[in-house]
Amino acid sequence: MRPSPGPSTPLPYSQLVAEKGLSDGHRMMIEAVPPGARVLDVGCAGGYLAAPLSAAGHLVIGMEPDTVAAETARTHCAEVVVGDFERAEDRAALAGPFDAVLFGDVLEHLRDPWSALTAARELLAPDGRVIASIPNIAHWSSRRELARGRFDYAEHGLYDVTHLRFFTRSTALALAEGSGFEVEREQFTMWRLPLGRLAEKVPPSAMAAAARLRPELFALQFVLTLRPRTGR
Fold first, then answer.
1. Does the N terminus or the C terminus of the chain have fewer Cβ atoms within 10 A?
2. Is pLDDT at 228 greater than 80 in this prediction?
3. CA atoms within 13 A on the CB side of 131
4. What structural domains and CATH numbers belong to the chain?
């Protein structure tokens, strides 16, 4: 689910976490998990989300298509299923129900994230939630690059070469609604990478306020807590 460059190469996002620590989006997702939850971490990579979740007392089941990453994740998960969440036969190996199903930087890598989210509903406990982080392709930095005629793919970030889908705030919310969910909580991450002169002039508090005020433009990611829609 998360980018997999090859069996002998570290996953880019696992390597980023190892070097820089968990991101704001990761922490938001972890904090959204209810106490003592049974958690499914879809596309768990090497288990960088599973590690703090397990340490906090949650029981974490991981799912990961990359066999080497899955082996690493076993250190932090009660169980790891090697498979593709988009394949019904692979999902059949997941023993639900789960109190939380996590899609941490995963949905944009899927061929059909709408069907994947719909399938996640069937794995939830009656009061379960889906928690997803989704990058914002309409972030101001992306708009700037497009205005310059650039869309240069990279190993990670907004232009991750393995992204199959790109979402704005409105299409991320439409993804949730179209898959049978209501948004219980919406959070926004801000740009944390060095910005040269801009970083010197704009304090972090102002950037965070801008992300809340105009998330379509300033939020780097949308972190959504979703509950199944009922009565329709």
1. C
2. yes
3. 23
4. 12-228 (3.40.50.150)
